[in-house]
Amino acid sequence: MVENHCLRYPMTPYGGQSKNVEHIIDKPRHIRQHMTNVLIIGNTNDEDLSKWSHLVKTSDITIACDGAIKKCIEHHIAVDYLIGDMDSITQELLKQSKSNSVEIIEDYDQENNDLTKAILFAHEIEAAVIDIIGVDGGNSDHQFCNYMSLVECQTNARIHLDDCTVSAITNNSSKFYPIEPGTSFSLFSLGTCLGVNLTGAKWELKNSRLTSSSNGLHNIATSGKLVITCESGDLLLFINR
After folding, report:
1. Summary mean pLDDT of the chain
2. Are residues 102 and 14 in the same domain?
């Protein structure tokens, strides 16, 4: 759902577009089977999205969560899908968006927030990489809920904040995270986690049992890659910038 000045190219199968304009980043469309990188833009009023132009450039598909479409228009970011219950969008903006053929997914499920809906949709289109921006700032409970969306969806998505990235490690998973040696990070358990292993850090873990505590605060990377596995339970990883 974007106005004419947000559109990229002539009509395509993914959000028809009526004229060329100047954008933060202009990039070619891809057919769905070649899409790998998905960018999800959350609905915050406090964030300047221009600082994430490198993520816009490398994304194959951009999804706006509900009212985030307004920020996308302001920053000239072309959007492929708009998802949510549309409670933060004016009828005028909705009409403009429909007329420009951005694909609109109206989901009125009140059991999930719009970020969860967007992540699940990214899974449906088989995204290999999911980056999330536009969720920094706002109410603290909303911020915490965004972290819970990562856990709930059991996703490889990363939330990008001003000071760090946030990722979830869930039941019976093993994940690798590129990191600069010397970078600080924190690993927290949500409830009880069993069989936790961590390598590539100053303080490593081997088949550990973790519980909710502050003990995971401020570890240091000693190599260019963190390897984290978790047999059961949920972990949140914060990698500082």
Report:
1. 85
2. yes
Same domain, 195 and 137: no
25: CATH = 3.40.50.10240
CB contact at 8 A, 211 and 191: yes
Same domain, 128 and 59: yes
- pLDDT 10s digits, 3-16: 333 333 333 333 33
Task: Single out the residue of 224, 189, 217 nearest to residue 203, CA to CA.
Answer: 217
Tell me: the pLDDT tens digits for 126-143? 999 999 999 987 788 988
Number of domains in the chain: 2
Instruction: Provide the residue type at 151 as one letter.
Output: V
pTM of the model: 0.84
CA atoms of 29 and 50, how far apart (whole Å): 21
